[in-house]
Amino acid sequence: MKVGLFIPCYVDQFYPGAAIACLQLLEKLGVDVVYPKNQTCCGQPMANSGFEHLTGGCNDLFIKNFSEFDYVVGPSGSCVLHLKEHLHNHDNPEIATTLSNKLYEFTSFLTDVLKVKTLPARFPHKVGVHQSCHGQRGLHLSQMTELVAPEFSKPGSLLNMVKDIELVHLSRKDECCGFGGTFCVAEEAVSSKMGKDRVEDHLHNGAEYITGVDMSCLMHMEGILHRQGSKVKVLHIAEILNGE
């Protein structure tokens, strides 16, 4: 299979290590990965701010960059969900629909397409897993605790393959961190308080690292940790799964 690697702009600019880990692990698993160099923002910030009608250029470029691949994989639940729900092309609607169906968040691709059963990674630390809202409630990467239904977690199942890792049990494991994209700008006081509550849950339960599928949420919590003078660090899940 030939996979196009979709790297969101904030990962490219601020957390390139997450992108590199994603690429390296896919290659270790035998995947033929290509990174289209002229890719840019998927248009989610504009759409979230009420300007989805101005994202046509973003959609056209994404379709141009990624239509040729068997699958498109990205290390961001929020950006992937945005594209799966909103990618469109007025002149050729079918090409957008076809591409949306080939688009996967990183951990979903590992579990649902590659069906990974073992990983050579080792990470001897206590780790708290943040369930980002877009990934959990939009892409169904993990079960929602308010439902009377069997529990599952695609990120959790992969982390359990990592040697010597200890996943800490959180008091409110699927609570929102308060980032919410442009929400943290428009409602910074509410966003900050939600983030502090989310961080405190991880700290209270002894986490040395906080991980997840969205660097945007992790970036929000990283800022809070930094301001509190905490030694707890954040890492994208790909960086843990790719470890040796």
Can you offer a commentary on this structure?
- It is built from 13 helices and eight strands.
- Helix 11 (188-204) crosses helix 12 (215-227).
- Strand 7 (209-212), helix 12 and strand 8 (233-236) form a beta-alpha-beta unit.
- It folds into two domains: 2-113, no CATH class; 126-241, Rossmann fold.
- The protein is globular.
- The strands form two sheets. Strands 2-1-3-4 form a four-stranded parallel beta sheet, with helices on both faces.
- The two termini are 25 Å apart.
- With 244 residues, it is α/β, with parallel strands linked by helices.
- Helix content is 46%, strand content 11%.
CATH topology descriptor of the largest domain:
Rossmann fold
Q: How is the main sheet built?
A: 4 strands, parallel
CATH architecture of the largest domain: 3-Layer(aba) Sandwich
Number of strand segments: 8
Oligomer state equals single chain
Order the strands across the largest sheet as they lie in space: 2-1-3-4
- Overall CATH class of the largest domain: Alpha Beta
Radius of gyration: 18 Å
Secondary structural class: alpha/beta
Give the termini separation. 25 Å
Determine the fraction of residues in helical runs and give it as a percent range: 40-55%
Shape: globular
Low-confidence stretches: none
Q: Count every helix, treating DSSP H or I runs of 4 or more residues as helices.
A: 13
Give the SSE map.
Elements: E1 2-5, H1 9-14, H2 16-28, E2 32-34, H3 44-48, H4 56-66, E3 71-74, H5 77-86, H6 93-101, E4 103-105, H7 106-113, E5 126-129, H8 133-138, H9 154-159, E6 166-167, H10 183-186, H11 188-204, E7 209-212, H12 215-227, E8 233-236, H13 237-241
Parallel strand pairs: 1-2, 1-3, 3-4, 5-6, 5-7, 7-8
Helix pairs in contact: 11-12
